[in-house]
Write a structure and sequence with these properties.
This protein has 551 residues and is α/β, with parallel strands linked by helices. The protein has 2 domains: 201 residues, Glutaconate Coenzyme A-transferase, CATH 3.40.1080; 258 residues, Glutaconate Coenzyme A-transferase (3-Layer(aba) Sandwich), CATH 3.40.1080.10. Helices cover 24% and strands 25% of the residues. It has 15 helices and 36 strands. Strands 18-17-23-28-33-34-35-36 form an 8-stranded mixed beta sheet, sandwiched between helices. Strands 7-6-3-1-11-14-16 form a 7-stranded parallel beta sheet, with helices on both faces.
């Protein structure tokens, strides 16, 4: 007897989105553009503009679904310009990173919606935990930072501090403090995949990452709730044509499937599709067509971080696994490739790629020819658990105790991203960035640095605007901390920040101490930074590193 054929779940966007009710909590997948259901996000806003519904939505995402001009930023620009203070589309938002949307930041500052932020690792765990029936997520991440309820509790504006729809609480387990993260359960999950069959089974064949789309879908269905799950895909296929092991979200969890046009389903912000990003084609490093990074202060800093990483390689006698954050740290893997040392320094990105060349800027989150892509939630186990060898992250402000503000200033409410999770667990951490901010002109020559015009904004300050990393526990564990800039390198000691290196051509009193809000510790004669950092072409360190491994 033939079994009845399953009813197809493929529908038009307007039909699926029309089932979302006012006042819903809507969970949306996306790490920048990877796994962002851009077509459905735009369709949801267009439905609201046309009908006035759904409205008063509370949006939760594992990271941030968008980049400048795309995804949620596309929506936010129209809300800010067209709706202004009368907008009723969004009542609140909980995401890890607002940095790609100046419009959402402007709206948050004007209290046009409740703005909350948690670290990526917490949000990824939270979807899984609440789906399994737990009241929230318990984590050490965030203790002593602005996410701690004794400070701001992760609230970015007054409206959020007043309503506390998403909140943190201090809990004590075995005499040790943790944070409990709580937020409302999703009523709707909007996710994205590559292929889906009529029954709703979803694969991620052409995606560059494996985000927590399964956990997001589960969180809308937990405890018998009839939450709505809508998925955006590129390729509708017949039932039974997706290999079972490639199914990331099983069909019974999914209510509707919407086929997106290709221009609303890019792998990353500037790349529609590249098989090297999804791992469908793997190209050896020597065949990757990469132009050398120009010799600037950014390259000097990335080179100095790489030298530190290579010390670990030599001590360990083999390759190391590292994390590289956004900005200057993301260049380290490219510099390693220039020096023909990519096989010894294996970069990982929060979203899941291992190896290859991680992309930066709005394309951050994917890599060219990675050697592995693991689920985002599992990637953070490596970071929080200190399983990696080292990490390099950026900074906005540093104080004399080594506390770091990575992303929040007045008028700049970017959020923590994965920073608190990585900095808390990494056994060695190298903060990397320019010594000052603002308009500057610093020339890099074979002799060192020439500061023609210095930035007028101090980054080494007496008091941080917000603390995103507190090394108080890490210093007790003797974890290594360096703060690397183009002109100076500092080491964190129990007594505070110590100046240990200075670039050739730089005057310590005028160019370093005179541009800091506090005086660093200076014990002995300060070393001069390795002159190879300022050389044109390669540094020529491959032979030195590889010969030391053979001994």
């Amino acid at each position: 007897m033939m079994l009845p054929r399953a009813v197809s779940k493929f529908v038009e966007a307007w039909y699926a989105l029309g089932h979302i009710k006012d006042n819903s909590v809507v969970a949306i997948s996306g790490f920048n553009m990877p796994l962002t259901p851009e077509y459905l996000i735009q369709g949801l806003y267009q439905l609201y503009r046309t009908t006035g519904h759904p409205k008063n939505l509370f949006i939760i995402s594992d990271t941030f679904p968008g980049t400048p001009g795309r995804g949620l930023d596309w929506v936010a620009e129209r809300l800010y310009k067209d709706e202004g203070e009368s907008q009723e589309f969004i009542r609140g938002m909980l995401v890890a990173y607002y940095g790609w949307s100046k419009w959402l930041q402007l709206m948050a500052q004007k209290n046009l919606f409740e703005a909350y932020t948690w670290p990526i690792c917490v949000l990824a765990s939270w979807f899984r935990d609440v789906a399994s029936g737990k009241p929230g997520t318990i984590s050490k991440v965030g203790i002593g930072t602005f996410i701690d309820p004794r400070f701001d509790g992760g609230a970015l504006n007054d409206l959020a501090k007043e309503r506390r729809t998403a909140r943190t609480e201090v809990v004590v387990v075995d005499d040790s403090e943790f944070l409990m993260y709580k937020a409302p359960l999703p009523d709707v999950a909007i996710i994205r995949g590559s292929r889906a069959d009529e029954q709703g089974n979803i694969s991620l064949d052409e995606e560059g990452i494996i985000g927590p789309i399964l956990q997001i879908a589960q969180s809308a269905k937990t405890k018998g709730r009839r939450g709505l799950v809508i998925a955006q895909i590129l390729y509708p296929v017949r039932s039974g044509t997706i290999e079972p092991k490639k199914v990331v979200v099983p069909g019974p969890l999914v209510d509707y499937i919407v086929k997106a046009p290709p221009d609303k389903h890019w792998q990353s912000a500037t790349i529609p599709y590249d098989p090297r990003i999804s791992g469908q084609v793997s190209v050896p490093m020597e065949y990757l067509d990469m132009k050398p990074e120009p010799l600037t202060t950014r390259k000097v800093i990335a080179r100095r971080v790489l030298l530190e990483m290579l010390k670990i390689v030599q001590e360990k006698g083999s390759y190391i696994v590292i994390n590289l954050g956004v900005g200057i740290p993301s260049l380290v893997s490219k510099i390693a490739a220039e020096e023909n040392l990519s096989d010894l320094v294996i970069p990982t990105v929060e979203s899941g790629p291992w190896g290859g060349i991680p992309l930066h800027g709005p394309d951050f989150g994917v890599a060219i020819s990675p050697r592995a892509i693991i689920p985002l939630s599992e990637q953070f186990v490596f970071y929080e658990g200190g399983i990696i060898d080292a990490a390099s992250l950026g900074f906005l402000q540093v104080d004399k105790k080594g506390n770091v503000n990575a992303s929040i200033l007045p008028g700049r409410l970017t959020g923590p991203g994965g920073f608190p999770c990585i900095s808390m667990g990494a056994p060695r951490i190298y903060f990397a960035g320019h010594f000052t901010a603002g308009k500057q002109k610093i020339e890099v020559t074979e002799e060192g640095l020439r500061i023609v015009q210095d930035g007028n904004i101090q980054k080494f300050v007496d008091n941080l605007y917000k603390i995103l990393y507190c090394p108080c526990k890490a210093i007790e564990e003797n974890r290594e901390h360096l703060y690397i800039t183009e002109r100076a390198v500092f080491k964190l000691t129990r007594e505070g920040l110590e100046l240990i290196e200075v670039a050739p051509g730089v005057d310590i009193e005028r160019d370093i101490i005179g541009k800091m809000g506090f005086e660093p510790i200076i014990r002995d004669e300060v070393r001069v930074m390795d002159r190879r950092l300022f050389s044109k072409g390669r540094m020529g360190i491959e032979k030195e590193v590889r010969s030391s491994l053979r001994r």
